[in-house]
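R.M. (postdoc): so does anyone remember the format we settled on? I'll just put the structure tokens first.
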């Protein structure tokens, strides 16, 4: 029930992105889904922000955001900020 530690994003998620880039060299063809639910546990806005930042710093240029209609105002703010940053 505790938030994911920052190491999850900097190590595990970053490693998965590196594997994607190794297998599919054209990052324009990589669109992982990003959402608030992971393994049956809902992430908070801070975790979502870490995940989006990891996708961006991993060199990916797009992702698909999936949600179960349970996004908070803070979650929307995080997604909107990411969109503006990539514009």
């Amino acid at each position: 029930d505790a938030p994911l530690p920052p190491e999850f994003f900097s190590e595990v998620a970053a490693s998965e992105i590196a594997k994607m880039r190794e297998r599919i060299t054209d990052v324009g063809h990589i669109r992982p889904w990003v959402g608030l639910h992971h393994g049956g546990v809902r992430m908070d806005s801070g975790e979502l922000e870490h995940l989006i930042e990891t996708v961006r710093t991993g060199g990916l240029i797009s992702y698909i955001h999936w949600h179960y209609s349970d996004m908070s105002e803070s979650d929307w703010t995080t997604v909107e900020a990411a969109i503006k940053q990539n514009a």
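R.M.: ...and that's the designed sequence above, right after the tokens. Also worth knowing: Residues 41 and 69 are 15 Å apart (CA to CA). The chain is about 50% helix and 10% strand.
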